[in-house]
């Protein structure tokens, strides 16, 4: 079975790869080198590693191997409370609560729900009746609680006297809670540093979540003259062209508004008309490469940060292997308008290179974000955005004398 799947995976690369020369690799000879290893494979995980190395010989991104007939290991999901802790007075004390978004069931913080009334500074003294000391592993006590009602004993003091019990539902992952906290922290920081002049829009990927993030944050801040687009850690997708089309909108005119302060409506009706800066890093790839590439090609503004990952080929999938596993041979490669291969294994370099040094990050700084704000303010000073006010009413009615 392993021999058949190696042959099949090899054929995927031979038949589906985006260029017939396989980047100059003699794939017949490569297969001959790998075949002797098959007879020594004793586990699907070992075979996955062998397939991965076979694909790696071609030197290309999006060379994925996954799945297959692996043992089904029962999982005991550990619950998480969406909080940071400090050990004080021999107890776990809540140092920060990640509230998430109370209206969003996928991002609701376990400790932030209505009626729970747990605050930063409170001590968690017991979980489901088992006392919790500072020397205990809190995650061990939370094993099996993900998605399950769990009783916490809490108090504003590190003692049981006067403690109260609250029922919460721990989450299986805090990733979304911590991400939205980071995003909102960045938005507030940009607002503070720019004096309200710059919007902040985070794009986690160029797929459905990124499309949602972009629309939600971009249009909600169109009262700002400039914007910072943060695409660090962009996981890829195919919505880059939509985002670029929105950002490159030009202002063509206005419709007056006879209500309130008579602030005119712009045409197009939604947009940010001033400077745009994009933050990039080495963890943004695929669609995270294409977005800054198009941003630069459209001359929307400077790129700040570090060179992107450099993985701009398309997978478009391949058939499953015999045991249901997957081996991907990229089926499309990107080349530019001059007819030259671009971005793959190169990435997109920034206009302003900014390193995230450990010292600055540990101290709570974000050098890339701060540099982007400084650049945005500089561009706003050089190219201020002045929206026109409603002109005097026209006089058009005429009667003959």
Would you mind describing this structure in some detail?
The chain is an alpha/beta fold and 401 residues long. The chain folds into three domains: 65 residues, Transcription Regulator spoIIAA, CATH 3.30.750; 86 residues, Roll (Pdz3 Domain), CATH 2.30.42; 153 residues, 2-enoyl-CoA Hydratase, Chain A, domain 1 (Alpha-Beta Complex). It contains ten helices and 17 strands. The strands form five sheets. Strands 2, 3, 4, 5, 6 and 7 form a six-stranded antiparallel sheet that branches. A hairpin with a 2-residue loop joins strand 4 and strand 5. Helix 5 runs parallel beside helix 10. The model has no long low-confidence stretch (mean pLDDT 96).
Distance, first to last CA: 100 Å
The CATH class name of the largest domain reads Alpha Beta
Q: Name the CATH superfamily assignment of the largest domain.
A: 2-enoyl-CoA Hydratase, Chain A, domain 1
Number of strands: 17
What is the domain tally? Answer: 3
SSE sequence, one letter per element: HHHEEEEEHEEHEHEHEEEHEEEEEHH
Structural class by helix and strand composition: alpha/beta
Q: Which band does the percent of strand residues land in?
A: 15-25%
- The poorly predicted ranges are none
Name the CATH architecture of the largest domain: Alpha-Beta Complex
Q: How is the main sheet built?
A: 6 strands, antiparallel
Average per-residue pLDDT, rounded, comes to 96
Radius of gyration: 27 Å
CATH fold assignment of the largest domain: 2-enoyl-CoA Hydratase, Chain A, domain 1
């Amino acid at each position: 079975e392993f021999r058949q799947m190696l042959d099949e995976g090899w054929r995927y690369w031979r038949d589906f790869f985006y260029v017939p020369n396989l980047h100059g690799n003699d794939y017949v000879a490569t297969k001959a080198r790998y075949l002797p290893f098959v007879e020594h494979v004793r586990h699907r995980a070992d075979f996955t590693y062998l397939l991965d190395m076979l694909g790696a010989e071609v030197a290309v991104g999006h060379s994925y191997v996954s799945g297959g007939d692996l043992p089904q290991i029962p999982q005991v999901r550990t619950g998480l409370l969406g909080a940071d802790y400090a050990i004080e007075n021999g107890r776990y004390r809540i140092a920060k609560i990640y509230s998430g978004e109370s209206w969003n069931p996928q991002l609701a913080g376990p400790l932030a729900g209505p009626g729970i009334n747990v605050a930063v500074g409170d001590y968690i003294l017991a979980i489901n009746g088992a006392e919790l000391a500072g020397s205990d592993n809190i995650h061990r006590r939370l094993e099996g609680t993900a998605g399950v009602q769990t009783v916490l004993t809490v108090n504003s003091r590190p003692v049981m006297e006067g403690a109260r019990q609250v029922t919460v539902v721990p989450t299986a992952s805090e990733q979304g809670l911590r991400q939205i906290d980071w995003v909102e922290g960045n938005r507030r920081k940009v607002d503070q540093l720019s004096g309200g002049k710059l919007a902040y829009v985070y794009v986690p990927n160029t797929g459905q979540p990124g499309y949602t993030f972009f629309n939600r944050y971009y249009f909600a801040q169109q009262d700002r003259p400039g914007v910072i687009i943060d695409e660090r850690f962009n996981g890829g997708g195919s919505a880059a062209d939509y985002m670029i089309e929105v950002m490159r909108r030009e202002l063509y005119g206005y419709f007056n508004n006879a209500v309130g302060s008579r602030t005119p409506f712009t045409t197009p009706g939604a947009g940010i008309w001033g400077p745009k800066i994009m933050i990039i890093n080495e963890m943004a790839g695929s669609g995270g490469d294409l977005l800054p590439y198009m941003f630069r090609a459209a001359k929307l503004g400077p790129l700040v940060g570090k060179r992107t990952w450099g993985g701009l080929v398309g997978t478009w999938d391949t058939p499953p292997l015999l045991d249901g596993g997957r081996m991907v041979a990229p089926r499309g490669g990107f080349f530019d308008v001059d007819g030259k291969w671009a971005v793959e294994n190169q990435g997109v370099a920034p206009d302003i290179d900014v390193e995230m040094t450990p010292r600055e990050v540990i101290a709570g700084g974000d050098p890339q974000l701060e540099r982007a704000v400084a650049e945005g303010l500089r561009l706003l000073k050089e190219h201020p955005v002045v929206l026109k006010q409603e002109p005097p009413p026209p006089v058009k009615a005429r009667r003959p004398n």
